[in-house]
Each structure stands twice: as C-alpha cells, then as structure tokens.
Inverse folding.
C-alpha cells in the first residue's frame, strides 16, 4: 500500500532529482533545507547529467520512509577526483527521510560508492587505487 509519505518521496525523486527541476524543491522539502537540497541535486546532476533514480522498494513507519533506490547514469564530470570516464554505472542506495506536514524535514542516505569506484576503474580488484594520471 502506498502511503502519502512514500508517494511524496517517490514524487520528489521522479519530479525533481530525475529532471533536475530544482525550482520545485520547495514543493517537497521543508523551508530550512531547500537550499541544501538544491545544492545536492545540482551536484549530482553536474557529475551525472543523465541521472535517473528508480525506487526499488519503500517502507514507511510513523514519520519515517526508508527507500531502496538505484541510480543509473553516465559519469560525465569529475567525481571524487576521478576524471570523466563516460562509463554507465548503477549505484544502489538507501535513503531514510522524515516527513511532517507533507514535507521532507530530514534526510539521511548511504550510497554504495565503493561499487561505483570499481565500475569507474578507480579501484582494482585487489582494492588498490588506480595509479593512472
């Protein structure tokens, strides 16, 4: 069953993060976090202009929504000191959002950056950093 809180998070990802439409952030995020959320979306889309996030599953309890998501994109700008590789990647992540009065008031997230580093060639199979310049 889709709760209004889960739908709010899904819509934010689909209508703001996937499109880069930062002018709509305030529709979804509490006033005190709007600028931070805009910066986050700008940063992700600068590195991955074709970013598309898909919600795999969600669990809502009380004022919290946990979402397992997959972000798919092409590495087109520098990220963590790694020059653009033009490689397509998929990154799994888990987000937890606190919702009150129809807005996201807190957000925590963890992405599997380690997997992304392998896919981009920044780490080798033995765990050492790539020494390419």
């Amino acid at each position: 069953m889709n709760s209004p809180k889960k739908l709010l998070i899904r819509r934010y990802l689909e209508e703001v993060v996937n499109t880069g439409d930062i002018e709509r952030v305030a529709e979804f995020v509490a006033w005190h976090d709007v600028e931070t959320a805009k910066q986050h979306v700008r940063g992700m889309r600068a590195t991955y202009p074709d970013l598309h996030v898909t919600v795999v599953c969600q669990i809502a309890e009380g004022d919290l929504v946990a979402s397992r998501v997959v972000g798919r994109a092409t590495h087109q700008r520098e990220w963590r000191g790694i020059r653009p590789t033009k490689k397509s990647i998929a990154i799994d992540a888990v987000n937890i959002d606190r919702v009150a009065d129809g807005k996201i008031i807190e957000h925590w997230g963890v992405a599997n950056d380690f997997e992304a580093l392998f896919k981009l060639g920044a780490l080798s199979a033995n765990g050492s950093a790539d020494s390419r310049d």
Summary: The longest helix spans residues 4-17. The radius of gyration is 16 Å. The mean pLDDT is 90.
